[in-house]
Amino acid sequence: MEQAFFLADAELQEALAGLSAQADVWVPASDARKPGLVRFRRFQPGLTVRLDARSLVSAKEVLFPRSETLLRFTKEKDLSVPAGHRIHLDDARTVRPVVVFGCRPCDARGFLTFDPVFTKGPYRDPYYSERREKTTFVSLVCRDADAACFCSAVGSGPADPEGSDAQLIPVDGGYVLRPVTERGAALLEPIGRTAAPEQIREAQDVLDQVGRETVGEGSLTTLAEAFRARFQDPAFWHAHIDKCLSCGLCTFVCPTCYCFTITDEARGLNGERIRSWDACMFPHFTLEASGHNPRPSKVERYRNRVGHKFSYFPARYGQVACCGCGRCVRHCPVSVDIRAVVRDLPAQEEAHA
Amino acid sequence: MPKVVTNDNPYLPHMGTIREIIQETPNIKTFRIVLDDPEEMAAFRFEPGQVGQLSVFGVGESTFVINSPPTRREYLQFSVMKTGEVTRALHRLSEGDPIGVRAPLGNSFPVDELKGKDILFVGGGIGMAPLRTLLLTMADRREEFGDITVIYGARSPQDLCYRYEFDEWKAAGVNLILTVDREFPGWEERVGFVPTVLAEEAPSPFNRVAITCGPPIMIKFVLAGLKELGYEDDQILTTLERRMKCGIGLCGRCNIGDTYVCVDGPVFSNTQLRRMVSEL
């Protein structure tokens, strides 16, 4: 560890306030009314910052809001034509620098699924890309993986720096801040003191120890072919998904799910075109005006979700579209476990037959 | 007021004006649209088969093929069947109304690969729209292609689109075979479903490519009929439709396995269709 800073627990609020002068700082936080509900909120002094707790929803909404305006339109009377009108379009937007502070490595890595889709093309999404370019991720080395976590099974791990600009490493009395990228270094320099050699040693020990941990069994990254072979096996999909409620929770808490819808809302002469989170698990997602639906039941919809993450996305972008955060497993109301489904893809014995 | 363009934003439509509306059938209208910025209109380039998203602001967007050919660029033509929310709103528009256009999107017919070949178009109902752009491209470059045969069917004579230009197609050397599902007073062309007429006509697959579009049930039997006639998979092209929102490969709606109809299609060969997961 060449360069590192130390941030004492007692100085956390002050440091976040300092960062907030130049950027919107998003932290996991809870409020007094719902202390158990931890989610990412924009920092303001006095906010109950909860670096100790895993957030219910990932930091996805920081770069990909649940709902955002793509453009505004105004109808104006056109005096040159009888009964005519014109439409004035405006897609102006301002993008503030953003810091995501204290997310887990899985959350930061989740954006590596967004990046090739939204920033590379064939079409670049300017809303996501502009925010992405101004965002710095400081992730917390994770020491409290639970039974639902499986980051190691998708090629990541609880100390994974990939996708993060800096790492927070818990040590005695506070955190050692370790820059991963130049952007991370530039962010940290003003807020921490240079760490003492023993603090650096302790942090390195934590990194080494957590880095050796395996979270989740086996590997779920090489099952694209097995998925194709299972595609036309309705019994397999029914066995795994008949209990699904099609509630879509798995997609909303997922750091890598990026399906969206676009809708218009107008009042009088003004209106907005709005992008909102949508979910491939909803029946109407692919329902066509004719009544035809290419994914008519939850079998086809869940198969598409599994296929997208572990077969289609790897075919297109060379990586699985899953960061192993375990939220879909942890929060599913009927305990659908995507790990079990994916692990069973290549199984020869038909447990469900 | 000028349009505010802050950068290259693929979600931002070009503004256009509806120059002409043609009532094709009781539930299909054709819109001829000119982009408001003359420079944009002059610079607009597309290939046959590419699509566009039409915007009715306050209602939404939907995807339609540009069915005018790139060889005729005085307007962009789209045919719209009244089916859902956006198409209903489009049908309420009048000539002179503003409309948003995001185009061109998607891939196109491989026109260069079709040069020197005989062509068979097999269309049903509104499915004639994507075929029209290629048909007229070929009509305007007639000497580059061999025989052009069109089998076009609809439920009734009044459900056939583009009736007013059938004579122009024939004058361009197109062998036009029309059919409707059952007998109608005054109808003197063929009677019968499109796949049946295809089997009766039996155009030879030798040096020929078949291009088909229509309702799914028609496509299913046309593909079977073409196979029966000896057409290989790579001699058959079709265009697919899916519900779309973004049209640019992001929103996750129109995929068939790892293929996105919006950016990889809408034009596919039967060889490509057979490689896809079966989720049509």
From TrEMBL, chain A:
It comes from the Bacteria. This is 4Fe-4S dicluster domain-containing protein. One of its GO terms (molecular function) is iron-sulfur cluster binding. The keyword Iron-sulfur applies. Residues 234-265, 313-344 form the 4Fe-4S ferredoxin-type domain. The keyword Transferase does not apply. Keywords: Iron, Iron-sulfur, Metal-binding.
From TrEMBL, chain B:
This is NAD(P)H-flavin reductase. Binds 1 [2Fe-2S] cluster per subunit. Keywords: 2Fe-2S, Electron transport, FAD, Flavoprotein, Iron, Iron-sulfur, Metal-binding, Transport. Residues 11-111 form the FAD-binding FR-type domain. Its cofactor is [2Fe-2S] cluster. CDD domains: sulfite_reductase_like. One of its GO terms (biological process) is pyrimidine nucleotide biosynthetic process. One of its GO terms (molecular function) is flavin adenine dinucleotide binding. The keyword Glycosyltransferase does not apply. It comes from the Bacteria. [2Fe-2S] cluster binds at C246, C251, C254, C262. InterPro entries: Cyt_c3_hydrogenase_gsu, Dihydroorotate_DH_ele_sf, Dihydroorotate_DH_Fe-S-bd, FAD-bd_FR_type, Flavoprot_Pyr_Nucl_cyt_Rdtase, FNR_nucleotide-bd, OxRdtase_FAD/NAD-bd, PyrK_electron_transfer. Transmembrane segments: none annotated. It holds the Pfam family NAD_binding_1. The keyword Transport applies. PANTHER family: ANAEROBIC SULFITE REDUCTASE SUBUNIT B, DIHYDROOROTATE DEHYDROGENASE B (NAD(+)), ELECTRON TRANSFER SUBUNIT.
